Amino acid sequence: MAVLNVYLCSKFPPFPKPFNLHQNSTSISLPSYRAPQATPIPIQSPLPSLFESISKASVVALVSASIVFASDPALAFKGGGPYGSEVTRGQDLTGKDFSGKTLIKQDFKTSILRQANFKGAKLLGASFFDADLTGADLSDADLRGADFSLANVTKVNLSNANLEGALTTGNTSFKGSNISGADFTDVPLRDDQREYLCKVADGVNPVTGNETRETLLCK
């Protein structure tokens, strides 16, 4: 039996030694992997450029306005008209001579125009809103579409003036005014003012050929 064991041991190779992971192990280094990093894209906010554009535009507008105002003083004051180079709104223009001038749509709002001379002036659409015209001369003036709302038109010379379509709302007063030959066609008058004017109305307008009393709808 001992002989058989020796025989078998000589025929088979010895069992391999168990592999020890901690002894004689060769370390294998693998290349480390790094995920690619995205390159940041710079994002510029549009706000700075927008503010810069607005600032430049504002500077240009201010410079332009300064140049315009310096060249035309009437535009530097709110209420200047498209005709006439003088400032006429909210001013004391007592005794001022505007005779024969073209002052279409000129703004005389709240101005003092006592004894001012507008004889023969072209004042289509001009505004005399809340103005004081006491004793002013508006004879032969073209006052079509002018605004006399709240104005003081007492003792005014309106002889041969054309007031067609003028506005006279509020407490506009024509007391003591000369209206001989004036044309009041389509002028909205208060009943008391119409009654008063009809008592003194006479003459024919030399431009329109209309009788003053007829334009006032006098009975």
Encode the helix/strand succession as letters.
HHHH
State the end-to-end CA separation.
Answer: 166 Å
CATH topology value of the domain at 80-219: Pectate Lyase C-like
Whole-number mean pLDDT: 77
Largest sheet, described in full?
Answer: none
Per the principal axes of the C-alpha atoms, what is the gross shape? globular
Poorly predicted sequence stretches spanning 5 or more consecutive residues: 1-10, 21-28, 58-79
Helix content: 10-25%
- The assigned structural class equals mainly alpha
CATH architecture of the domain at 80-219: 3 Solenoid
Count all strands and give the number.
0
Round the Cα radius of gyration to an integer and report it: 50 Å
Query: What's the name of the CATH homologous superfamily of the domain at 80-219?
Result: E3 ubiquitin-protein ligase SopA
Would you write up a description of this structure?
The protein has 219 residues and is mainly α. The protein has a domain at 80-219: 3 Solenoid (Pectate Lyase C-like), CATH 2.160.20. The protein is built from 4 helices and no strands. The longest helix has 26 residues, at 46-71. The radius of gyration is 50 Å and the shape is globular. The model is unreliable at 1-10, 21-28 and 58-79 (pLDDT under 50).
